[in-house]
Each structure stands twice: as structure tokens, then as C-alpha cells.
Design goal:
- The chain is an alpha/beta fold.
- It has one domain: 3-Layer(aba) Sandwich (Rossmann fold), CATH 3.40.50.
- It is built from six helices and six strands, in the order βαβββααβαβαα.
- The strands form two sheets. The chain has a four-stranded parallel sheet with strand order 2-1-5-6.
- Helix 1 links the parallel strand 1 and strand 2.
Length: 159
């Protein structure tokens, strides 16, 4: 069997956008019966949501938005991305350009071109997924993430 495709979704705190992307993508590949072809996770560029080594759970409105679509993120806690994650993952997909800037401070250069914005897989190249922590609009964030993930699946030839 082939090695799974390893995907890491990244945002600032790992309590809204990146865990939403992680669990929406896990749901998508599960419904297509291709979960075994992927290793999917998410992480933060900051430690703001991590206290004494323990990450906060997914922000309640993000968890509720996922639940509206029948998706559970039970047990997920914020973790920070590490330099080692660059070698571990095939794709490091960020939600906005600040995430990319902060990620590069952690990992250094990107010689294998693994770091991208999630919306780069749509016709909105270079666009950010708005942070619902600030906008309060979790349904727009959900829709934008789904658009990005559908584009990513197409890119991988799995749509």
C-alpha cells in the first residue's frame, strides 16, 4: 500500500479555522471511502491557545458549525506546528498570509514548495479564509474551507 498523503492545516490558534478544515476534510475523505489514503491533522502558528503544554479545545461556535453539518471534532485540542512537521507532512495548508509568514518563522525555508494557502486551490488564489474569531461568521468560514478542500481534492485528482 502507498504511503498516505499527509496534510496539515494551519491557522493562528488551532481552535477555529484549521480544526474546521481538519475535520471537514476527514469527513469528505471518509464519505468517499478513501480515509486510508490520508493522514490529516491541524496546528497553530502561535501558543496563545496552549497553556502549560495543554491546548484549548475547538472554540464552541466552530464546534457548533461543524455539528450543524454532522461533523464531530471531539477530543481535538490546540497544538503548535513544529519545525519537524515540515518533513512529516506533504502539504502545509494555511488559512491566511499571516499564517504563512509565521509558519516560515518556525520551519525556515520551503524548498519543497509544501506551504500554500488553502484557497490557492480555488479561483481565489492568494485569498484568505476570514478568521471567524473576529468576524463571528462561522458559516462563511465553513463554506470557504469547503471550497478550498474541494479544489484541493480536484488538484489531487480525487474529485
Amino acid at each position: 500500500m502507498k504511503e498516505p498523503i499527509k496534510v496539515l492545516f494551519i491557522c493562528h490558534g488551532n481552535i477555529c479555522r484549521s480544526p474546521m478544515a481538519e475535520f471537514i476534510f476527514k469527513d469528505m475523505v471518509s464519505k468517499q471511502n478513501i480515509s486510508d489514503r490520508f493522514y490529516i491533522s491541524s496546528a497553530a502558528t502561535s501558543t496563545e491557545e496552549i497553556w502549560n503544554g495543554v491546548g484549548n479545545p475547538v472554540y464552541p461556535p466552530a464546534r457548533e458549525e461543524l455539528a450543524k453539518h454532522g461533523i464531530s471534532c471531539q477530543g481535538k485540542r490546540a497544538v503548535q506546528v513544529s519545525k519537524a512537521d515540515y518533513q512529516k507532512y506533504d502539504y502545509l495548508l494555511c488559512m491566511d498570509s499571516n499564517n504563512i509568514r509565521n509558519l516560515r518563522r518556525i520551519i525556515g525555508s520551503d524548498p519543497e514548495d509544501k506551504v500554500r494557502l488553502l484557497l490557492d486551490y480555488t479561483d481565489r488564489v492568494g485569498a484568505s479564509i476570514a478568521d471567524p474569531w473576529y468576524t463571528g461568521n462561522f458559516s462563511v468560514t465553513y463554506r470557504d474551507i469547503v471550497d478550498g478542500l474541494e479544489g484541493f481534492m480536484k488538484y489531487l485528482g480525487m474529485n
